[in-house]
Design goal:
This protein is α+β, with helices and mostly antiparallel strands and 269 residues long. The protein has eleven helices and six strands. It has helices at residues 20-24, 31-39, 72-79, 91-100, 119-127, 162-186, 189-203, 209-219, 224-231, 235-249, 254-260; strands spanning 2-6, 47-53, 59-65, 106-112, 131-140, 146-154. The chain has a six-stranded antiparallel sheet, with helices on both faces. Helix 7 (189-203) crosses helix 8 (209-219), helix 8 (209-219) crosses helix 10 (235-249) and helix 9 (224-231) crosses helix 10 (235-249). The longest helix has 25 residues, at 162-186.
């Protein structure tokens, strides 16, 4: 296992043109997919996950993303039972960060599957999903908690080169800043999403679940291509869902979709 500590005064942002799409998707459902796509420009990934850890090291997942049709990052999160927390090589370092770290202090780690001493832990997650390693970024936030971001890679993906590891280390402060801002904006979303869902179903109860999800995605700033990637569908198929939804709603353009969400406004105005 390799560990890198980053103090608040040492943080610096990566200077490359990154992450434009992720910034545009902050607070929206498409953020994980956009972040995955841009991180894939640095190295091949199997999946990404974000959440928090308390002082005991037990994780609370907030979201995961993978292009795998079985969504194995979600399964990995479910398998990461509290009983395995203490057998993670990062447990001690994360505990110190949560209990003694200064706010903003970060920890970056790279852990290979072979370093997991608990056989049940390794078999339930790393062996089951053919995972080779994880790269974890943790930052002390407040109340004995750490915000964490994890990248997982499979055994069939090429080894990370030294330059790629360095790039991911340099990106760590930017990634934490993005995750923090995304969480803040996400906290404001539930009321808006529920409002949009209710207005869409009130206007057209016959919308299918896929059509409803597509409309909600468009209202949250997502593109058709990002939804096609997430749903493992062709772009033309997603366009067909959009066209069907628009016909049911009696509209033709995205601007009219937004107009439907405004009280007192008609789609044609």
């Amino acid at each position: 296992m390799k560990l890198w500590h980053v103090s608040p005064v040492e943080r610096r942002c990566y200077s490359a043109a990154f992450p434009e799409q992720s910034i545009a998707a902050l607070g929206a459902m498409g953020f994980p997919a956009a972040l995955f796509k841009e991180l894939s420009l640095v190295s091949e990934l199997a999946g990404i996950a974000a959440g928090t850890l308390d002082a005991s090291g037990s994780p609370v997942s907030e979201w995961t993303y993978s292009r795998s049709p079985v969504g194995f990052t979600d399964l990995c999160t479910q398998c990461y039972q509290p009983v395995f927390a203490s057998s993670d090589p990062l447990h001690a370092a994360r505990y110190r960060l949560a209990t003694r770290g200064r706010r903003g202090e970060s920890l970056i780690a790279r852990v290979n599957a072979e370093e997991i001493g608990n056989r049940a832990h390794r078999a339930s997650i790393y062996d089951r999903f053919n995972l080779k390693e994880k790269i974890s970024i943790s930052q002390c936030i407040a109340g004995g908690q750490t915000l964490h971001f994890t990248i997982v890679r499979r055994r069939d993906q090429p080894p990370l080169r030294a330059g790629q590891v360095q790039s991911l280390r340099e990106l760590a402060p930017t990634l934490v800043a993005l995750l923090t801002r995304h969480r803040e904006l996400q906290a404001l979303r539930p009321v808006t999403v529920q409002h949009n869902r209710q207005r869409l179903l009130t206007h057209c109860p016959s919308l299918t679940q896929r059509e409803l999800a597509l409309c909600l995605g468009l209202l949250n700033g997502r593109t058709l291509s990002s939804m096609a990637d997430e749903w493992n569908l062709k772009a033309s198929t997603v366009s067909t869902y959009r066209d069907r939804a628009y016909r049911r709603l009696g509209i033709h353009f995205r601007s009219q979709l937004f107009a439907l969400m405004q009280p007192g406004l008609q789609a044609g105005l």
